[in-house]
Amino acid sequence: MNPTIELILMSASVVMSGIILFFVYGYRKERGVSYLIGLIACRMIYSASIIMEKSSYLLMDKLIFRHLQSTALNFIVPCFILFVYQLVGREKLVKPIWRVALFSVFALWSLLSWFDSELHVIYRLIELINGHLVTSRTVYSIAFGLLCFSIIVGGVFFLFQYIRNIRSDFRKPGMWVLFLSMFPFALEVARLIQPEWSPWLLSLSVYCGFTGMLMLVIMLRIKFFAVVPFARTIVLDTLQESIVITNASGKIIDSNKQASRWFAGMGHTEISGRDVKELLEPWPEWRRLCESMQEGRATIEAWLDGERKIYNVNVYPVHRLRKQGSVSLVVDVTEKEKHLEQIAQLNRMKDQLFTIVSHDIRSPLASQYQLIAMLEEDQNRFDEEHREIVGMLGDQIRQTLGMTNNLLEWFRSQREDMALRPQWLELSEVAEDCCHMLRAQSEAKQIEMKNAIPAGTRVYADREVLGLVLRNLLSNAVKFTRTGGSVRVSARVSDELATISVSDNGVGMDEKQVLRLFEEKALNSLLGTAGERGTGLGLLVSRQFVERSGGKMWAESRAGQGSVFYFTVRGGKEG
After folding, report:
1. I need a labelling partner for 543 at 20 to 30 A (CA). Which of 19, 85, 444, 515 fits?
2. What is the 3-state secondary structure (H, E, C) of 286-328?
3. Whole-angstrom Cα distance, residue 238 to residue 256?
4. Are 334 and 252 in contact (CB under 8 A)?
5. 36 with 216: CB under 8 angstroms?
6. How far is the C-alpha of 351 from the C-alpha of 345, rounded, in Å?
7. Strand pairing partners for 424?
């Protein structure tokens, strides 16, 4: 994991532990809670010191925070012992003098760790390996660790016995909480057995420590104090969504403040105890889901403060098999619907623009292209000045028509309802047609254009899409090939897949240009070897159509040595 992300997540865990500590502090007079507060505080100090250790670079700094970790862990043990004794009702067995003695033992051991550089009682070896502090414990330290773990195991056993005897509906959740809260303990045992695992076990301990504390808090609220009702009120009333809870009889038994305000805005001052048949009469689908206690979603409309609002209502059953009721979450989607309508309007405008470009711009350009092609065929009848004008005019019309075609095809590729019409095609014939369309452009630069696709090569593709892709690749090849160069289109078929390539011996590209070639953000066009202009849309449109056809497109090139563009389509035998 990225070190920065790891530190952020660990810091978030410490903050959440602090929030839990704040809530638990409000119940400090309840049985067992006072020592639970100390336990959570020690875990917070332990987690914070791990973060500081990971953020430090010097051995001395890391060692200080490691000592702080050890101190926090040491004090967790007496807090845990006294917490268990108070929880199970045996706190009278622990006299005040014994409590002082218990804390004194662990305080003394913690003090030894801070002076261990002279005493060498705790650590046998301390090393900084790859930025991580790795320690090797002495026999005394290992023995003390085993003693602590034995004490914790004893406390867990007492908790286990206690949970076994509580009410049956709390027994299973309590066992799960006890099981989950043991993950930090298991990680500390692993650290003792395998010290070299410490760098990554420390991070896990922060996360699992928070989880363990959260589980313990949940366990305690089940039996002794109202952490969840208190937290529930804060959480539910903070939500901007309305929450409505019904029972199996179809009566509303609970709701949050937002739901009360929402119904009050429609004239229902009190909703608790109301029947959904009456209250939800304007919204039959929502009422049906609540009455049947089925999971589902309904879209409803309501008028609040003279404004029409749209809501999504998500209904979830409570204990579906036993049919105990349902929970409804009402989400305001009015703004979302407005945005969707705006998007729909923009899409309609785009389609209108598409139609305008298709009929009012492309058609005249196509006619001009045909006329200029006829003039170019008879250009020998003109003098030199007129031939030059006809050539320049032809280049401009071809470039404009090519740009328009690419723009239209790009619009077409963005339509979700665009349907391709694949069929079996003779690839060499399609390639020959494309070469013929670009013949004037290639002959103007004296470039040899060769169709090397053998007759009988069959592909399964949309003819318009295949022609568009080939024309774009051939046009680019001619554009970036110097006078007297060559362009070649070829194909090979294997495993029912045809790989078509367009190669040239033009200016080529460096590795960086190749990597940026198909990026939408890099939508620009370079001048050709004869100053030809473009929009950069051709490759983008071609790649999108190839991918929609189930193929892929890539390029290979070296600066000064030409380029090869590849794309794949389905090929092989027909049928």
Report:
1. 444
2. HHHHHHHCCCEEEEEEEEECCEEEEEEEEEEEECCCCCCEEEE
3. 9
4. no
5. yes
6. 10
7. 460
The tens digit of pLDDT for each residue in 332-367 reads: 888 888 888 888 777 777 666 666 655 566 667 777
Please determine, looking at this structure, whether the domain spanning 3-224 carries the CATH number 3.40.50.880. no
192-210, pLDDT tens digit by residue?
777 666 666 666 666 665 5
CB 515: neighbour CB atoms within 10 A?
12
* Host H or E run for residue 500: strand 497-504
190 burial via Cβ count (<10 Å: 0-12, 13-18, 19+)? middle
Helix and strand numbers, DSSP H then E, in the chain: 21, 14
**Structure confidence by residue, pLDDT tens digits, 64-110:** 988 898 898 889 889 888 888 877 766 666 788 888 998 999 999 99
CA 521 – CA 514 distance, rounded (Å): 14
- Which range scores top for mean pLDDT: 23-32, 334-343, 501-510? 501-510
- CA atoms of 232 and 318, how far apart (whole Å): 17
pLDDT value at residue 361 = 66
Q: Count CB-CB contacts under 10 A for residue 469.
A: 29
Closest CA to 39 of 81, 10, 67, 9: 81
CB 276 within 8 A of CB 252: yes
3-class SS of residue 569:
strand
Pairing of strands 448-451, 486-494: parallel
Q: Which amino acid is at 126?
A: I
Q: Where are the domains of the chain?
A: 3-224, 239-332, 335-418, 419-575
Class of domain 239-332: alpha beta
Distance set, CA 306 to CA 252, 339, 507 (Å): 26, 20, 67
Question: What is the CATH architecture of 419-575?
Answer: 2-Layer Sandwich (3.30)
